[in-house]
Design brief:
heterodimer, A: 110 residues, mainly alpha, Fumarate Reductase Iron-sulfur Protein, Chain B, domain 2, 7 helices, globular, B: 356 residues, Glutathione S-transferase Yfyf (Class Pi), Chain A, domain 2, Rossmann fold, 2 domains, four-stranded parallel beta sheet, 16 helices, 8 strands
């Protein structure tokens, strides 16, 4: 292959049609309360793991919706399952179950 | 694509295009990239349509390429454009027609500036008078050369010897139309069909029998972007934009790409070669590329002009597959002969892109 002195940049756009939506469907089926989320970020602000790592549960939700499985796998490894996110959620989303279901979905489809 | 809805929007953006007596200004770069296109515009207008078109040998660059690369200040650019208008006035013409999309965008931008800030126009007039002793009238009609071909697309269609139809299958050729960014994105009202649904090239394709492909990245820039290309290390930005378009259009299996800008056909054509050499990827069938044509070249093919007189041999992506589909005869032995019949030399074949 020839070197022209420049390279092709990777495209950062997200093609929703090409993404795997099975994990999102699985989690929403088993924990429908996730649809109540308004994206306020209270979960992320109170997160114990987030105090010591770059873990961001709000981002994990976005990655799940986008079908970005590989990034989601790395993100979930940081969670300690303390459940403070669930205590602070103003919409009453069962976030511990969401996280457990994401982990199960990773086993099934990841 | 819901064509009915788009047609309603296109109707809102119809510009007035002069029907005769054009003062034509050439592009800085098109004569190098696609050498016959501007000459063929003259031939089509004079011989096929019987129109009066004139160019002045004293015409220079509009300086748009320097302006958009941030090396020429707007004041200088305005004075140079005022000089072009002075040449038009001295030649006795009022309808200004540009070959280049960036020139067209720049002339539009300057006329709009003068419309809203008359004191700027007065200052430019004074500068031009002091520098060259010239005075000028503003054009009564400003159009791009593709507007003119669009206006006469029906007349060209009536004289067509070949149509955009696959001769073997009888199906319309699948055409990608790519509009230069400076055509109507800055001033939507100045382009046929506006900024989001420019119809200038789609109108030609439909009139001449082809089918326009609506693909996801249809309105994405080709990637030229002036500064993106001028520095070698930055060319990846330019290349990536074109790749994004190719990846998006390839599943629709286009037979050709039609463009109306100096930069777009250059990059959509040459980058296909570059991508094939860098990644081994080709976007046509059986290792072929997707032929890229200017609107003059396509009009010339439809009118039955010799492909080599139209300069198709200097394209990086060979046009032969398209010629075969349209049923246009060509002499392969004449491909690399100059107009005196002497050999220009055969270029080295690319590693992956099919070469004829």
């Amino acid at each position: 292959m020839k070197d022209f002195g420049f390279t092709v940049q990777l495209d950062h756009s997200i093609d929703y049609d090409a993404k795997d939506k099975r994990m999102m469907r699985y989690v929403l089926y088993h924990e429908p309360s996730l649809d109540w989320c308004i994206g306020c970020g209270s979960c992320t602000a109170t997160c114990s793991a987030g105090q010591f790592t770059l873990f961001n549960i709000r981002m994990a939700h976005t990655l799940l919706r986008r079908g970005e499985t590989e990034k989601l796998k790395q993100e979930l490894k940081k969670c300690m399952f303390c459940g403070k996110c669930q205590l602070t959620c103003p919409r009453g989303v069962n976030l511990r179950n969401v996280l457990l279901r994401i982990n199960r979905a990773i086993e099934l489809f990841g | 694509m819901k064509v009915e809805g788009k047609r309603r929007i296109w109707k809102d953006y119809q510009k007035e295009i002069a029907d005769d007596r054009y003062f034509y200004v050439r592009s800085c770069v098109r004569q190098n990239f696609f050498p016959a296109s501007e000459k063929m515009f003259f031939r089509i207008l004079k011989e096929e349509l019987g129109k009066d078109i004139f160019e002045n040998a004293a015409h220079t660059t509009c300086s748009g390429i320097g302006y958009h690369s941030d090396v020429v200040p707007f004041e200088t650019t305005m004075t140079m454009v005022a000089r072009q208008f002075a040449l038009m006035t001295e030649s006795g013409y009022q309808n200004f027609t540009t070959s280049c999309i960036t020139s067209f965008g720049l002339y539009t931008e300057i006329l709009e500036t003068w419309h809203h800030f008359p004191e700027v126009e007065a200052r430019v007039r004074e500068n031009l008078k002091k520098a060259t002793g010239r005075e000028f009238d503003k054009p009564s009609n400003l159009s791009h050369a593709s507007d003119v071909i669009y206006k006469f697309r029906k007349e060209i269609g009536e004289k067509a010897r070949y149509r955009l139809v696959n001769k073997q299958t009888g199906q319309p050729l699948r055409c990608v139309e790519h509009i230069g960014c400076h055509y109507s994105r800055m001033f939507p009202g100045k382009g046929v069909g506006g900024a989001e649904y420019p119809y200038v090239l789609a109108g030609m394709i439909e009139e001449w029998g082809g089918e326009v492909i609506d693909y996801p990245e249809r309105r994405h820039c080709c990637g030229f972007g002036f500064r993106q290309y001028l520095i070698q290390a930055n060319r990846g930005y330019s290349l990536s934009c074109s790749k994004k378009k190719f990846d998006s259009m390839a599943p629709y299996k286009p037979d050709l790409i039609l463009t109306n800008c100096p930069g777009c056909p250059m990059f959509l054509d040459r980058w296909q070669y570059t991508l094939s050499e860098m990644e081994g990827t080709t976007y046509g069938e059986n290792g072929q590329g997707i032929p890229v044509l200017t609107y003059e070249e396509l009009a010339g093919l439809v009118l039955g002009y010799d492909p080599w007189d139209l300069g198709l041999q200097v394209h990086q992506v060979p046009a032969e597959p398209l010629l075969d589909k349209m049923g246009i005869p060509y002499d392969s032995n004449r491909k690399f002969l100059n107009r005196d019949g002497q050999s220009m030399g055969r270029p080295k074949a690319p590693s992956f892109l099919k070469f004829y």
